[in-house]
Specification:
Helix content of chain B: 25-40%
Radius of gyration of chain B: 18 Å
CATH topology of chain A: ABC transporter involved in vitamin B12 uptake, BtuC
CATH class of chain A: Mainly Alpha
Distance between the termini of chain B: 22 Å
CATH class of one domain in chain B: Alpha Beta
Order of helices and strands of chain B: EEEHEEEHHHHEHEEEHH
CATH superfamily of one domain in chain B: P-loop containing nucleotide triphosphate hydrolases
Distance between the termini of chain A: 40 Å
Strand content of chain B: 15-25%
Strand content of chain A: under 5%
Shape of chain B: globular
Strand order of the largest sheet of chain B: 6-7-8-3-9-10
CATH architecture of one domain in chain B: 3-Layer(aba) Sandwich
Oligomer: heterodimer
Structural class of chain A: mainly alpha
Largest sheet of chain A: none
Order of helices and strands of chain A: HHHHHHHHHHHH
Largest interface: A-B, 26 and 34 residues
CATH architecture of chain A: Orthogonal Bundle
Number of domains of chain A: 1
Shape of chain A: globular
Number of strands of chain B: 10
Number of strands of chain A: 0
Structural class of chain B: alpha/beta
CATH topology of one domain in chain B: Rossmann fold
Helix content of chain A: over 70%
Chain lengths: ~270, ~250
């Protein structure tokens, strides 16, 4: 098995995967507790339109997807706060419109091919060196911004009004969190694909929340489960010739299942 | 009407404040001062504008007319929000399944301006002291959702105390808490007021629940109908009229 790590493509996938897993594990806790778990799903569909546009224009698809996801996340946030749309309506609209736009662009550019499928289903084992740098730098920035704003984000998520009364600029933090979500979704897309990226953000966090009795525990557990799922998923995918995306998501679901049963048994 | 001694330092000045949610004013022309070491109860029936006024003081809402000055500065200019400890109405704010320990909740108060997650030794001792002050140190590692309503309320007070506030503002602090716990609760507030010199401002819709420790009363019903000492309020026509209107006396110890 050590031989695995001698392969350049595996090293790249492994390193990128771990960084993205940390970003997803950290962010997921905040999204679930803010009842925003579905935003990842919605933004992934918008990112699909971005990938299709990138392939159509022959520009780096990840960068176009990132731009579109950031714009969409900002509009979703504004619609939620200002336009008085109910619950997840804005996310549902953007999710469908994004996907529709993606289908249209992909058909027009005749790019319904291997390239597009690698984004739909994820293909981290085939990640390009340029994408490795792009992904690691962005994932590092996401992690750093969450760590630096950890206390403010926790306070705002737990008790928004008191946080605001204590002088925390909650609107600014909302914007930051939305931006970080867009970036993380686009990064996660490379690991598990557009169709499964929200699982990578939500499932490890949901698993950690089953047994955590403190916020710190929840964050640490979520991140550990996320990293373990990605690492084991990659190894299994390589050894058993399975798709990495499916293996990673199913492993995180296994962790969720075990912790869910443990919590129920404990009462 | 304003019979409160004004020798103490003026902390908050509410001047001609009006507020509207778009269907008529909920507050009209409200003016009164809050002085250092006051123990003030803002009372009034449901819908009388108490919570709205509290939110205006805290800068969460902007008044339609008038202004609030905190330590000589307008709400917009004021930056030292850590000196005002806000204790929200627990029941409407907290998700009982939220994974957060008592210690983490108390730490939120002092750590929110810091950049890195690790606590310093000094912050740890501030947290321990705040927990001791409200008598819940033994629960520090418990998840907050597992505590009783009274204990949770103490956690929020500890969070406010950890910042060494000059003022504590409490929104309906004894809602859903039994009479005995209420007694302990007011004794604790009295101690903080007397021994630590912390100004206490609490709001309640139960007009009769004015504890022996409350020194000043501001009675709201859209406008300010009374502001002055507690003793005078109990002798006032306003108090008698409110009792006659069915705002029953719950706990009035003299």
């Amino acid at each position: 098995m050590e031989a695995l790590f001698l392969y350049g493509f595996f090293q790249r996938a492994f390193l990128t995967g771990i960084f993205i897993a940390i970003a997803c594990g950290l962010l997921g806790i905040f999204l679930i507790l803010r009842r925003d778990a579905m935003i990842g799903h919605g933004l992934a569909h918008v990112a699909f339109a971005g990938v299709a546009l990138g392939l159509f224009l022959n520009v780096m698809p990840l960068a176009v997807a990132l731009f579109m996801a950031v714009v969409a996340s900002w509009i979703i946030m504004k619609l939620k706060v200002k336009a008085g749309l109910h619950g997840d309506t804005a996310i549902a609209i953007f999710s469908s419109v994004g996907f529709a736009l993606g289908i249209l662009l992909a058909t027009l550019s005749q790019s319904f091919n291997v390239d597009l499928f690698s984004y739909l289903f994820g293909e981290i084992l085939a990640i390009e060196p340029s994408e490795v740098v792009f992904s690691i730098v962005l994932a590092f920035v996401v992690v750093l911004l969450i760590v630096v704003n950890y206390h403010k984000l926790m306070y705002m998520t737990f008790d928004r009004e008191s946080a605001k009364a204590s002088g925390i600029k909650v609107d600014r933090l909302d914007g930051l969190l939305t931006l970080l979500t867009a970036v993380t979704v686009v990064l996660g897309m490379k690991v598990v694909g557009i169709l499964l990226v929200s699982a990578l953000v939500v499932i490890p966090a949901a698993a950690g929340l089953q047994v955590a009795s403190s916020f710190k525990q929840a964050i640490v557990l979520s991140t550990c489960i996320s990293i373990t799922s990605v690492v084991l998923g990659l190894v299994l995918a390589f050894l058993l010739d399975l798709p990495a995306s499916g293996s990673i998501v199913l492993l995180s679901f296994l962790a969720f299942g075990i912790l869910f049963v443990f919590r129920r048994a404990r009462g | 009407m304003d019979s409160v001694a004004t020798e103490q330092e003026l902390l908050i000045e509410i001047r001609k404040v009006a507020y509207s949610y778009g269907y008529g004013d909920v507050l009209k022309d409200v003016s009164f001062p809050i002085n250092q070491e006051d123990f003030l109860a803002i009372i009034g029936p449901n819908g009388s504008g108490k919570t709205t006024l509290l939110k205006i003081i805290l800068g969460l809402l902007k008044p339609r007319l008038g202004e609030v000055k905190i330590m000589g500065k307008t709400v917009e200019e004021f930056a030292d929000w850590k000196t005002i400890g806000y204790v929200p109405q627990k029941a409407t704010h907290i998700d009982s399944l939220f994974p957060v320990s008592v210690k983490e909740v108390v730490a939120m108060g002092i750590q929110s301006s810091r950049r890195f997650p690790r606590r310093t030794r000094e912050e740890d001792s501030c947290i321990s002291r705040a927990l001791q002050q409200v008598g819940i140190e033994e629960y520090k590692n418990r998840r907050i959702g597992n505590l009783s309503a009274g204990q949770q309320q103490r956690v929020f007070i500890a969070r406010a105390l950890a910042n060494h506030p000059k003022i504590l503002m409490l929104d309906e602090p004894t809602t859903g808490v039994d009479v005995k716990t209420q007694e302990h609760f007011y004794d604790m507030l009295h101690r903080l007021n007397r021994e630590e010199g912390i100004t206490i401002v609490l709001i309640t819709h139960e007009v009769g629940i004015i504890n022996k420790h409350v020194a000043q009363v501001a009675c709201l019903n859209q406008t300010l109908v009374y502001h002055g000492s507690h003793d005078e309020f109990c002798r006032s026509d306003e108090f008698k009229r409110m009792l006659a209107d069915g705002h029953h006396l719950v706990s009035h110890h003299h």
